[in-house]
From TrEMBL:
PROSITE patterns: ABC_TRANSPORTER_2
Domain ABC transporter: 7-235
SMART domains: AAA
Pfam family name, one: ABC_tran
Record organism: Streptantibioticus silvisoli
UniProt lineage: Bacteria, Bacillati, Actinomycetota, Actinomycetes, Kitasatosporales
The protein's name: ABC transporter ATP-binding protein
C-alpha cells in the first residue's frame, strides 16, 4: 500500500444551528501539492480550512493528517502543521523579532537567530524587527503572521487569505514563497479570493458556493473564462 495522503477529508460537513456552512465534501492533498479554495464571502472556505486544521470539528465525516486523526491538541500534529488563520493573533507587548523567537523556541528550532534574520529579510521586515505589532502597517502585520509560520518546521501549511492587505509586490513574493514550499515537499491548502494567485501556485482549484463544491480541477480549466464569457467567480455567483 502506498503512503497515505498528507491531508484527507472524507465526507466532511459542518452545520451551525440551522445554517449548513459546508455540505459533504471530500478533499485529498499530497506532500508537495498546493490546492486552492475559492468562492464568494460566506461560501464555506474558512470553515473547511478550520476543520482541516483540526480547529473545528466537522458535523459529519473525518479528517486525517498523514494517516492519523487530525487533532490540533496532538503534539505530533502541531509540530508539523502551520496555520495562518483569518484573524491576526499577536502579543501587543512583544516585538516582531520576539514573536519569531517565541515560535522558534516553542518548536525547538536550532540556531534560531540566524534563521530569524533570514526570515525577516525574506518578508521585508528587517527594519521592523524591534517594532511592536501596534506600530506595523496592516500589510506588515500580515507579513509577520506569514513569517511566524515560516520560522518553524512544517509538512502542511494552511493559509486563509494570506494575500489580504498585501500590495502587488508582496503578493508576488507570497506566490514565490508558496512555490518554494511545495517544491520542498510541503503540502499547502490555500484559501484565497485571488484567482491569479491560485493560478500561479495551485495544481488544483476547488470553488465553493453556499458550502457546495461547484467546480474542481486544474487551474487552467477552473479559472479560464467560460464559453459564455463568464469567469469562475460569475459561475459561482450563478450557482447560489
Ligand atoms: N462559528 C460560526 N457560527 C455560526 N455560523 C458560522 C460560524 N462560522 C461560520 N459561519 C457561517 O458559515 C458560513 C461559511 O462561513 P465561512 O467563514 O466558512 O465563509 P468564507 O467562504 O470563508 O467567507 P469569507 O470569504 O467571507 O472569509 C457563513 O454563512 C457564516 O456565517
Amino acid at each position: 500500500m502506498g503512503a497515505p495522503p498528507l491531508l484527507q477529508l472524507t465526507g466532511v460537513s459542518r452545520v451551525f444551528g440551522q445554517r449548513k456552512a459546508l455540505a459533504k465534501t471530500d478533499l485529498s492533498l499530497s506532500a508537495g501539492q498546493c490546492v486552492a479554495l475559492l468562492g464568494h464571502n460566506g461560501s464555506g472556505k474558512s470553515t473547511l480550512l478550520r476543520i482541516a486544521a483540526g480547529r473545528d470539528r466537522p458535523t459529519t465525516g473525518r479528517v486525517s493528517f498523514d494517516g492519523m486523526p487530525m487533532n490540533e491538541n496532538d503534539p505530533r500534529v502541531r509540530a508539523r502543521v502551520a496555520v495562518v488563520g483569518d484573524t491576526a493573533a499577536c502579543y501587543p507587548d512583544l516585538t516582531v523579532r520576539e514573536h519569531l523567537q517565541l515560535v522558534a523556541v516553542a518548536h525547538g528550532v536550532e540556531d534560531a537567530e540566524e534563521w530569524i534574520d533570514h526570515i525577516l529579510a525574506d518578508r521585508l521586515l528587517s527594519e521592523h524587527a524591534r517594532s511592536l505589532p501596534g506600530a506595523l502597517s496592516s500589510g506588515q502585520l500580515q507579513s509577520l503572521l506569514l513569517a511566524a509560520a515560516l520560522v518553524r518546521p512544517r509538512d502542511l501549511l494552511l493559509l486563509d487569505e494570506p494575500e489580504q492587505r498585501l500590495d502587488p509586490g508582496a503578493r508576488r513574493r507570497l506566490a514565490e514563497l508558496i512555490a518554494a514550499e511545495t517544491e520542498s515537499g510541503v503540502g499547502v491548502l490555500l484559501v484565497t479570493h485571488h484567482g491569479e494567485l491560485a493560478a500561479a501556485v495551485a495544481s488544483r482549484v476547488i470553488v465553493l458556493s453556499e458550502g457546495r463544491v461547484v467546480a474542481d480541477g486544474k487551474p487552467s480549466k477552473v479559472l479560464s473564462t467560460g464559453p459564455d464569457g463568464t469567469t469562475w467567480a460569475a459561475a459561482a455567483e450563478r450557482a447560489r
